[in-house]
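We emphasize that the prediction below concerns an isolated chain of 231 residues; any contacts that depend on oligomerization or on bound cofactors are therefore not represented. The input was used exactly as deposited, without trimming of termini.
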Amino acid sequence: MAANAGWSGKIWIGRDWWCFEGASGDSKAHGHLCAQVVAGLDGPARVEGEAGIVEAPVVLIPPGACHRLLGGPIRAIYPRPLGRLARRWEVERWSAVAPAPAAWAPLEGDLAETLDAEAALGEGTAIDPRLKLALHALDSDLSLADLAARAGLSAPRLRALAQAELGAPLAHWRLWLRLETALLRLRAGEGLAIAAAEAGFADQSHLNRAMSRFFGITPLTVARLLDPLPR
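Result of the prediction step, given as a token string:
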């Protein structure tokens, strides 16, 4: 994807969040299961959503919202789906690409310290324990029927529960976890082909398609920008 060449900076992966900081290239229009918070580092952030261009110091992007970053130096936070930070920010309540409230200031100060403190405040927000049992086994090769049995539910009931609480099918979340595994393997120094295989993708092309679908950029771009945590 030619637009990926414009990306420069660093990507970090924390327990409850991922972060990109630097100059973003123009990604293609895409949506992903992770919410996104974009702050401009040299002027307002500019994000194109389905209703047009939103320009603000901080822009909130709900999970699944089709959007496109319009360049410029930014700090972008991706709270891990169903993680403590996502629960703290109540991302399931975000309905459209929109400016953050004026009082929003979670991107200030030391990045890791600030985000970890925010995440700790979301510790007490729980999801349905039956769904949690199924999610904990998503990184296995269990079928939907097996996952449902583990959670004490029928397959249709588990499917409905996942859609209600996650806003997406379990298959999408399984793919997300595999992407996360691939990124961690890339950060550990593995090549793309090995990272794809260890994450459960059929091949490198499968990983390419999934990364493009959920992030609008290629694994090669991510691999080039990955960095250790900013501790």
